[in-house]
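Weekly sync, protein design subgroup
Attendees: M.S., D.O., the rotation student, P.L. (late)

Item 1: inverse folding check
M.S. brought a backbone from last month's batch and wanted to see whether the design step gives back something sensible before we order anything. D.O. pointed out we never logged the input encoding, so this time it goes straight into the notes. Structure tokens as presented (230 positions):
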């Protein structure tokens, strides 16, 4: 078996109850509030819950399915509470948040439906279930009237090298704009102008002034394009 049910254990929480609302009615103000909440600190509490141990990674696969090489300390919004100083990792293949067991070096998988946001290594992620894109975790690159989101994904692939078959993890990131409660995947100029065409001239000027290329620096180009709406 690749996993086992663990006994109960404690996490230290910088805790307070986070307000919630239906995701399909999410507004930018609420999004910003959640992001700001993750930076607060309050009196610590202890919550006891269970997790599932994750099997060790195979040693014959190049790269990692995780977003970070090692577990990073950050915050997780879990079951309406914010946990601080939690060692965590994100499995981009299976799209799941992992936490390091406090009394061991192995990862555990949390109940994903209870994870609504997490932050580590300077990156903020939230769970979205909105029209226009798959439900799940997205990195929030900026928040405003138009919000830029990145879906960080990896896929296990194979290739033939000589007489051997190599297995490796391949990154497959996707970029979205969130506008008026709908996700829009952006891959081309045409898709961007269909959504933000009324600011086309201003956006092009910003890109020119900052030396940005939509083709080669798409994330930053989209961030600057969204900022033109503020």
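Designed sequence read out in the meeting:
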């Amino acid at each position: 078996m690749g996993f086992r049910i663990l006994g109960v254990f404690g996490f230290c929480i910088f805790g307070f109850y986070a307000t919630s609302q239906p995701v399909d009615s999410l507004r930018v103000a609420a999004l910003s509030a959640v992001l700001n909440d993750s930076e607060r600190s309050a009196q610590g509490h202890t919550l006891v819950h269970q997790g599932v141990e994750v099997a060790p990674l195979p040693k014959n696969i190049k790269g990692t399915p995780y977003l970070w090489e090692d577990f990073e300390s950050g915050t997780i919004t879990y079951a309406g509470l914010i946990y601080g100083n939690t060692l965590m990792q994100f499995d981009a293949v299976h799209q799941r948040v992992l936490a390091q067991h406090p009394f061991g070096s192995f990862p555990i998988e949390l109940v994903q439906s209870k994870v609504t946001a997490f932050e580590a290594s300077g990156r903020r992620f939230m769970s979205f279930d909105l029209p226009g894109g798959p439900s799940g975790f997205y990195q929030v690159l900026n928040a405003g009237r138009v919000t830029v989101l990145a879906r960080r994904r990896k896929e296990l692939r194979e290739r033939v090298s000589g007489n051997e078959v190599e297995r490796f993890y391949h990154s497959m990131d996707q970029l979205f704009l969130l506008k008026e409660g709908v996700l829009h995947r952006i891959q081309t100029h045409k898709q961007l102008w269909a959504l933000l065409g009324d600011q086309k001239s201003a956006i092009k000027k910003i890109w020119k002034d900052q030396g940005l290329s939509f083709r080669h620096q798409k994330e930053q180009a989209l961030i600057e394009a969204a900022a033109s709406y503020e």
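Discussion: Residues 9-185 form one domain. Residues 1-30, 32-49 have pLDDT under 50 and may be disordered.
Action: P.L. to compare against the previous round before Friday.
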